[in-house]
Amino acid sequence: xxxxxxxxxxxxxxxxxxxxxxxxxxGAEAAKLKVGLLLPRSGLQALIGQSCQRxxxxxxxxxxxxxxxxxxxxxADTESNVDTARSRAERLIxxxxxxxxxxxxxxxxxxxxxxxxxxGVPHIVNIAxxxxxxxxxxxxxxxxxxxxxxxxxxxxxxxxDIFRESKxxxxxxxxxxxxxxxxxxxxxxxxxxxxxxxxxxKVVDTIPYDPAAKDLTVEVSRAKAxxxxxxxxxxxxxxxxxxxxxxxxxxxxPMGVVSPGSPGLYEEQFSKxxxxxxxxxxxxxxxxxxxxxxxxxxxxxxxxxxxxxxxAFHGINASYTFDAVLIAADAFKRARSTDPKALAExxxxxxxxxxxxxxxxxxxxxxxxxxxxxxxxxxxxNLRGKPTVVLPAELAEGKLVFPMPKLx
Amino acid sequence: MxxxxxxxxxxxxxxxxxxxxxLMALGLSAIFGVVRLVNFAHGELMTLAMYGAVGAFQGLALxxxxxMIAAAVVFGGFGYVLQRGFINRFIHRPEHLQMLLMIALAIxxxxxxxxxxxxxARSVQTSYQLDSFELGPLLVDKAxxxxxxxxxxxxxxxxxxxxxxxTGKAIRACADNPIGARVAGLPVAHLYAVTFGLGAAxxxxxxxxxxxxxxxxxxxxxxxxxxxFVIVIVGGLGSMVGALLGGLAIGVxxxxxxxxxxxxxxxxxxxxxxVVLLLVRPQGxxxxxxx
Lengths: 408, 291
Known about the structure:
The complex is a heterodimer of chains A (408) and B (291). Chain A has helices spanning 6-21, 24-28, 46-67, 82-94, 106-119, 148-166, 181-193, 217-225, 237-249, 268-274, 293-305, 311-335, 340-348, and strands at 32-39, 70-77, 99-102, 123-125, 141-143, 172-178, 202-209, 230-234, 256-259, 282-286, 377-383, 386-391. In chain A, the strands form 2 sheets. In chain A, strands 7-6-8-9-10-11-12 form a 7-stranded mixed sheet, with helices on both faces. Chain A has 2 domains: 25-147 and 290-375, Rossmann fold (3-Layer(aba) Sandwich); 149-287 and 378-395, Rossmann fold (3-Layer(aba) Sandwich), CATH 3.40.50.2300. By secondary structure, chain A is an alpha/beta fold. Chain A is globular. Chain A contains 13 helices and 12 strands. Helix content of chain A is 44%, strand content 17%. Chain B has a domain at 24-220. In chain B, a hairpin with a 2-residue loop joins strand 1 and strand 2 (138-141).
């Protein structure tokens, strides 16, 4: 064996340098897409964050089968905290995430979107409704989830459908909403839209409340004092349980408890925690499309992975999170690159047919702002402890109960 | 303006909640009044007791009001050991070290609960949890009434202990004049530990009462520590009656602010009350006057 000369050493050194110095993206082209998944898996919103996580956990295997691409999830917990969400997003990018997905809460999502835009890494919002997220002129932020005004409008329009279907119409309503980013956005949307929709009721009082409140006695007293026939509610999960429990204690039986598009009422913990008192509450909300084959495949994979969980309870969170990963994988397949700019461009060109998505809506296409239009809502009612689609008729799995029975 | 029955309901509800708040703050006040230690882990101790009550309910089907007695004994013993074996060593050290010690204890308890139970909210579901007493136009939450009665009984027992027993009198002597107590041969370290034990027992009873009213999560502690501080400052540091009055003042003012102004104003009003009181009567409602 000859000795190492200056020339061979130089060649070896240059080769080594070339391997490490040239972008890893070249090597990554044929490999896998690293998706940084940001969700509130602990803290106030932990239950919903974990529900979203389940949808993402099922995605890599199913997408490998359907699209033939490999996706690696890099999980990060935002701890239900805006500052943590921002720092976790930074860290995921440092650790090599090529796309960010998340983060359920509008405030957290807005913080992550800023980081993604600054660092030039695509961010696909799974769930977050504050309109401003796609109103900032960002080039790397995409959302397949309707903004609050659209959810509110869809939800309020469906209220009219409920009254038509039941042939009963309340004359007054009290509007209670959480006072976080999402709740405020929804409140603005509802306030702006109600006068335009010719609904039969008048809102007699609007009561904002803290989603972290442990006791909602006063809030419910105030709402009950209005004698409103309908409770219009924009809530989260824990507060929804506390609020409904307080309604039972105060024996307040409005004609209906209807959410025009917020989480909470259709969650598993709501029904399990309240038993029969959770029944008949209504959510006019985005949902999954039970008619699509991909939904059946997704539900089957979900059931296999999480045999103890009822898919319907995780449907919306899991579906929209799965679809966000689907969008990333679809773009990766077309871009054949993990280069963030190429991925962002591919995401911009997304055109996933309505039948090839799990969530309920039209085709997934982003407009110039990075927003998907045409997501639709359904009327979900808790019947016998399970969220059940009752409207529109073509998707209905059960019969609408309205007005809800009086508390015994 | 809501109709009178709604206002009356809010006042009753605020009063009942305030009594439980008062018991919770009582422990903090007693510990500060005697040991001169600010217990920054007070809310976490209450959270720990709440988890104990939830565990006893789910595992043994024990009503939290029965768990209360066992919790008082266990927490009393725990408090005694904690003070005697650990905190006592910090009593003569600078106050910032005592503060750091108690904050560290709070963080350990909070994160320990998170590790053990996860972030989910937990609750007990007793048969009467959703029931109310109907008194004409008034509806009074049963669980809240029971919780307040338990808090009143616990407070009365504690007051009787301090007033009528030799140990109680010795503790009061320690609080009035620690050097004199030492000179008189009182076992000050033991009495400090008994006081800490009593404080922990009262917060455990408050936790078992509170778990009937709210769900418990590991992150509950700091908010209730802060609330206990507000109550004892409003009532007067070191005063048992003051703690109860402070609890009532906070409970009722929050309820009325929520009903008559806006629910978001609840905390604003209680902290506003604190600021006003600090300006007008810094020693609190029942605190000793300036000498």
